[in-house]
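Need tokens for this chain, all 258 residues.
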Amino acid sequence: MFDSIRKLIKSFIYPLYEWRLVRSLDFSKTPHHVGVILDGNRRWAKSNPTNNDPHGHKAGASKIIEFLGWCDDAQVRVVTLWLLSTDNFKRSQEEIDELLTIIGNTVDELAATGRWNIKAVGALDLLPPWLAEKLSSLKPIRKDGVEVNVAISYGGRREIVDAVKSYLSEQESAGDSIKDAKDRLTTKDISKFLYTAGQPDPELLIRTSGEQRLGGFLLWQSALSEFYFCEAYWPDFRRVDFLRALRSYSVRQRRFGS
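Here are the structure tokens for all 258 residues:
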């Protein structure tokens, strides 16, 4: 009885609260690039034992299209979603196989909407051929569409190593020695070979589930990012939680390391 009353009260309060949040936001200060660590799926599944998903991955995947709609409304231009880390491969093969299937289906669903430009970022060579080929074949479908990076088989350290290797390969192809390449190497050279090359660095990084660490997410790109940690598990992440993150970002005085 009490739970029913509480839900009824929330159904009236939250729309009003969301409206007030939107009214208070200055969308001219919206971050151009938002990165999200979609954390807490497995803990959500444990706290919701009656659901049909033992790991919570399907529930987490079903939240993505809804979240991207919120980003559209907030005029965010680039979104990076961390779906699978290189460390996740340490899990059981059964869970990994299930997760990869869900990711493949999710990518298909995102592409089928025709609303966003989907780009895979990560070490695709670690993935099974069927998924690596699917991700490699993704093409931009809109000139003005929001760019959505799906970080799959992604690790921040691996990305930097791959960037350095790509830089050295380019220099070698140009006939330069390792010494010459080393002497000329700059941070701009590394940035040119990152998975997100050509995109702005993220101004705001969000992690759900209450964990207050990045775990290597966008390790290079996040040097000047603002962080927002949300207690909600990813499947429970609401529009009001996203608006709170944007409000928190909008009132911060960014000093860019100075």
